[in-house]
Amino acid sequence: MTDMALAEFRKARSVELRLAGLEYEDIAKEVGYSNRGTAWRAVNTALRERVDSSVEEYRQTELARLDALQSVHWDKALFGDIASATLVLKVMGQRSRLLGLELLATQAGEKSFNTVVIGGTTGEFIRGLKMVDGITDD
């Protein structure tokens, strides 16, 4: 096997193992990387390059996990639960990174993301969250 073929095999196998739930340390040992950082870079490179069909499966699995987590906390966030609102915003950020939206914005010469700050009373905070989601109180 050529060096190039071995590198591509390791990348693809790393994504498969991550999809199966293995930690980066274990992935490194399994595919012969020197450390967990190399395994992490291989998985992230594969995600960017889409070198294997399992990359899309991994992406969809992670998106489904994020969707499930967000759905549990969404209504709580809209009705003033600060911890749920914080978690929802983190989930939204992770989804944006997973989909490469920040990278696209950066490539287009824009800032990588916009920050929305919602302050005020609990009622104002809830109204602000609803505005972000496009919900009206009509």
Task: Annotate the secondary structure layout.
Elements: H1 3-19, H2 24-31, H3 36-49, H4 53-78, H5 82-99, H6 101-107, H7 122-133
Helix pairs in contact: 1-2, 1-3, 1-4, 2-3, 4-5
Q: Mind explaining what this structure looks like?
A:
The chain has 2 domains: 3-51; 63-133, no CATH class. The protein is mainly α. It is built from 7 helices and no strands. It has helices at 3-19, 24-31, 36-49, 53-78, 82-99, 101-107, 122-133. Helix 2 crosses helix 3 (36-49).
Number of helices: 7
Largest sheet: none
Q: Alpha-carbon distance between the termini?
A: 65 Å
Report mean pLDDT, rounded to a whole number. Answer: 83
Proportion in helices: over 70%
Q: SSE order in H/E notation?
A: HHHHHHH
* Uncertain segments: none
Q: Using DSSP, what is the number of strands?
A: 0
Instruction: Identify the overall geometry.
Output: elongated
The radius of gyration is: 19 Å
How many structural domains? 2
Judged by helices, strands and strand pairing, the structural class is mainly alpha
Q: What percentage of the residues does DSSP assign to strands (E)? A: under 5%
Give a concise summary.
The protein is mainly alpha-helical and 138 residues long. The protein has helices at residues 3-19, 24-31, 36-49, 53-78, 82-99, 101-107, 122-133.
